[in-house]
């Protein structure tokens, strides 16, 4: 397995490194968003620090909005990352010798 990886041309190494880094960043951001969504779901009452400047109705509207926004952001990010992966793979498959900037 490792012998076959080391036999790949340099452009493939770069491709897989960029692809892996891109997914690693996405997964890290998705994990952080998951943690934040968990807070949005469990916090039902206005925190003591905000009680003087926000009523419970405004807090609940804000909480639900942030929860919806976070869920949409997750699915939007997943779609974008998948689309980018497919685009990169198709570019590498059908245009293996072309590099950006060279016609």
Write the layout of secondary structure elements.
Elements: H1 2-6, H2 10-42, H3 56-94
Helix pairs in contact: 2-3
Keywords: Membrane, Transmembrane, Transmembrane helix
Pfam family, one: Peptidase_M48_N
Transmembrane segments: 14-34
Care to describe what's here?
- This protein has 103 residues and is mainly alpha-helical.
- The chain has a domain at 26-88.
- The chain has helices spanning 2-6, 10-42, 56-94.
- Helix 2 (10-42) packs antiparallel against helix 3.
- It is elongated, with a radius of gyration of 22 Å.
- Residues 36-83 form the CAAX prenyl protease 1 N-terminal domain.
- Keywords: Membrane, Transmembrane, Transmembrane helix.
Strand content: under 5%
Q: Termini distance? A: 35 Å
Name the helix and strand elements from N-terminus to C-terminus, one letter apiece: HHH
Report the uncertain regions: none
Task: List how many beta strands DSSP finds.
Answer: 0
What is the makeup of the main sheet? none
Our count of helices gives: 3
Shape: elongated
Q: Determine Rg (CA atoms, Å).
A: 22 Å
Rounded mean pLDDT is: 87
Helix share bin: over 70%
Query: What class would the helix/strand composition place it in?
Result: mainly alpha
Keywords: Membrane, Transmembrane, Transmembrane helix
InterPro entries: Peptidase_M48_N (IPR032456)
Transmembrane segments: 14-34
Protein name: CAAX prenyl protease 1 N-terminal domain-containing protein
């Amino acid at each position: 397995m490792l012998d076959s990886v080391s036999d790949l041309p340099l452009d493939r190494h770069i491709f897989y490194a960029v692809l892996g880094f891109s997914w690693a960043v996405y997964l890290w951001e998705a994990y952080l968003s998951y943690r934040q969504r968990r807070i949005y779901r469990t916090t039902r009452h206005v925190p003591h620090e905000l009680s003087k400047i926000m009523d419970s109705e405004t807090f609940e509207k804000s909480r639900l909005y942030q929860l919806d926004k976070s869920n949409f952001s997750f699915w939007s990010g997943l779609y974008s990352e998948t689309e980018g992966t497919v685009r990169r793979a198709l570019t590498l498959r059908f245009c293996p010798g072309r590099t950006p900037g060279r016609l």
